[in-house]
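Batch job 17 of 40 flagged for manual review because the log was empty.
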Amino acid sequence: MGGVKHPPPLNDLTELDKKRFIVGGIAILILFISFHPIPVEQESFSYDFQVELEEDSHQELILGESFNYTLDVKNRARNVDIGDGIEYQVSYSVSDQDWDTTLWVEEDGSLRKIEGHATDLVLDSGEDRRYHLLVEPTENSSARTAITFSAETDVTGEVRRKEETMRAVLGNGYDVDILSEEIQFDGYTAGISRLDDGTARFDFSLFNRGRNDTFELTSEELLDDNRTIDFSTGEDMRENLTINLSYAERRDFSVYLTEQNQDETVSNFITTEIKVRSVMTGEEKDIGLIAIRAD
């Protein structure tokens, strides 16, 4: 075949018949149709799974507020017989245990609370399971916490782990609680008091639900020069008041509305407002004052 001289066959007189030509052609055809460029191919197996978080991992909360993280554990195994399913352990950890956390799992269209920080899970190939992690700060919480949600399996003999880390921080926020008789409508708060001997006293409590902050208390400008408004924390009286509060700290204060000359008064009640302003955020909250004449 290479052109090198070779002795001829002993019987080169009898030509090949038609039958042998056909057999030879079939043999050559079999050679071409049975040829494969990759004679051995290994099937790919995978025990892969995923943990996915639906919301932003960083959340800012204030006292009394909570956030619900939604996490999905997804079995992505392929080309493998997993029998009754792959077993996982689902768990979470919190860097500051003073933050309240609760884990819930969706099952059959309803939520089931998980006791503790860990639970077992079995998923078939392509199956998902959804979890909800409820996070809420308490009065003893630190300024921030890290929550790590994880799922792991050792189906291959080697531990495989996937996780998502979330970070919650205490934001800026405050609330004003009324200690005296109060009126609430459409989110507006007003204190009510009797005007005895020309003076009405309103007692309030300022409760900081966020980071350390300074709060400025001022009064609306009174149209009547005969009336004054003063603030007090039990020490002295002043026209304006500044209160420094740390997280979850509460401070009581009083507001005094005074008529200098009662003979000039003609109305049976007086209405005005005071403002509470956060120095850190600039947020303001109005509180109404309603003084009713005693007689």
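Reviewer: the log was empty due to a logging misconfiguration, but the result itself is present. The chain has a mean pLDDT of 86. Unflagging and moving on to job 18.
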